[in-house]
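=== RUN LOG ===
request id: a7f3
mode: sequence -> structure
chains: 1
length: 190
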Amino acid sequence: MLGIDALAPTTGQQVLDIGCGTGLNFSLLQERVGSSGTIVGIDRSAEMLHQARRRAQARGWENVILLQADMVLLDPGTIAARIEEGGGAEVSDAALATYSLSLMGDWEQAWTNMTRLLATHARVGVVDLQEPEGWARWLTPLARLACAVGGSDITAAPWQAVEERCVDVVRASARGGHLQIRAGKTTRDK
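=== RESULT ===
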């Protein structure tokens, strides 16, 4: 919820959900983009996308496009064409990566591929994990273990891309700094 609030998608927009998994973000994204908007879920796992498809169908969301692809390896032009084939626009208005970039071996390449799928000056949101800070620092061993078990790199800090490559950045954290949230507007011109 904090990531979607920071991203602030609006009615009618097309939003990429990078590493969408089972589609847990879809309900909150639907509230923002409405039936006139589009949600494009991209995940490398066919099993996760199967669950996301079931979620969308059960709720009657006809504005969800699901694509199986590895964000590190994909060709943005090919994915853009697949989005259009699914009824979406070639470029998206926003992208959200929730706990997904730190799972990718080369999250910076995934970032590059993600931003190539966006319109000029689109909004990007990243929600990911780091070691707890301050009062919660004593939870660091548990946080490291949880990330290792889940396959996440707790030291990746992918939200730094938002800090370094976006403007109008919204910053937030939660759970003793373990959860980092950033959103901003891309500065790349087409």
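=== NOTES ===
Residues 19 and 43 are 5 Å apart (CA to CA).
The beta strands are 14-18, 38-43, 64-68, 92-98, 118-129, 166-174, 179-186.
=== END ===
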